[in-house]
Amino acid sequence: MTGKERRNAVFHTIKDSKGPVSGKELAEKFGVSRQVIVQDMALIRAKGYEIISTNRGYLLNAPQSVSRVFQVCHTDEELREELYVIVDLGGRVKNVMVEHQVYGHLEAELNVTSRRTAEKFLEDIQKGKSSPLKNLTSDYHWHVVEADSEETLEEIEKMLKEKGFLVEEP
């Protein structure tokens, strides 16, 4: 294994770990000294990855998020309320997707992260720049929603259901 391959493997070991990974553990796993691991960390950091050294080992400082796909259906008048439900509970609407009978899968990036970005999106729709993709499929569509935890996604799902926006599997 070359040094570059080892550093790549070390990075992925830390990235995929549920907790800190000790230098000793990495050294044993890759058959090198702890000093080599320290040098590898410096080179990995130099590539722009934020590796944090703790007293229990190395961690990758990366935003943690989870995502879920929600199938929803609502009118144009309810679009603001749908977006507000998601962002007010801490979600981020990454995209919108529809399945068109002729064109197939259509998807557009939204990145609605707050009421402010929701309002900007809605303003563009109202100015006639375009119309929502959901209008192609009788208001049925999907969103990938990101959040900081599964609990947040559960809250979002519960509220979408309460509002009557969530399409439930038969």
From TrEMBL:
SUPFAM superfamilies: Putative transcriptional regulator TM1602, C-terminal domain, Winged helix' DNA-binding domain. It comes from Candidatus Limivivens merdigallinarum. It holds the Pfam family HTH_11. The keyword Glycosyltransferase does not apply. PANTHER family: TRANSCRIPTION REPRESSOR NIAR-RELATED. InterPro entries: 3H_dom_sf, 3H_domain, HTH_11, NadR, WH-like_DNA-bd_sf, WH_DNA-bd_sf. Residues 6-58 form the Helix-turn-helix type domain. The keyword Acyltransferase does not apply. Ni(2+) binds at residues 74, 82, 141, 143. This is Transcription repressor NadR. Residues 71-166 form the 3H domain.
